[in-house]
Amino acid sequence: MSKYTIEDLLLAKEERVNFQYELIDKYKLPIVSMRVNYPGINKDNELSRKIAEIIKNELISKFKENIVYKDYKNTAEGPVFTLVLKNIAEEIKRKTVDVEEHHLLGRCVDIDVYDAQGNGLSRTSLGLPSRKCFLCEDKAQNCGRSRKHNIEDVVGFIENKYNEYMLQHNI
């Protein structure tokens, strides 16, 4: 696992977005993009990879009949899992929100859904509440943008959730 710079993060994000548009252009179907909510610049690490693998398998299980294409990469943004699905984008979003809200590690990931035109689907567009911060229950977007919490607290939450998952599954 490499050490990355902020420039690497920005380039990886640009490459991910371009890749998503290429997939939408090629398949003309909705896509799912999953990344781990790992703070700081070193997002590609052993913990983020383990969490990504678990949620990747959950998504494959949830959408197995609808998968047209899947891709997994470790990047400066951390692990990125992408799916192209034969399904209605709104249905996909509802199922991914269910993973984010009810899977033990769901709060540790961002699962974005884009329709066949490349438009991102938000929770609020489906009448669902905004995502809450896992430390203080404010809107996650507010805490992320303002850097309200220190990195150690966020990493601690993620580590605790992962350890809890491992205990529950006797791993």
From TrEMBL:
Transmembrane stretches, start-end: none
Record bears the keyword Nucleotidyltransferase: yes
InterPro entries assigned to the protein according to its UniProt record, in alphabetical order: CitX
GO BP, one annotated term: prosthetic group biosynthetic process
EC number(s) stated in the UniProt entry for this protein: 2.7.7.61
Keywords: Lyase, Nucleotidyltransferase, Transferase
A GO molecular function held by the record: lyase activity
Main EC class the enzyme belongs to: transferase
Coiled coil: none
Catalytic activity from the UniProt record: apo-[citrate lyase ACP] + 2'-(5''-triphospho-alpha-D-ribosyl)-3'-dephospho-CoA = holo-[citrate lyase ACP] + diphosphate
Pfam families according to UniProt: CitX (PF03802)
Protein name per UniProt: citrate lyase holo-[acyl-carrier protein] synthase
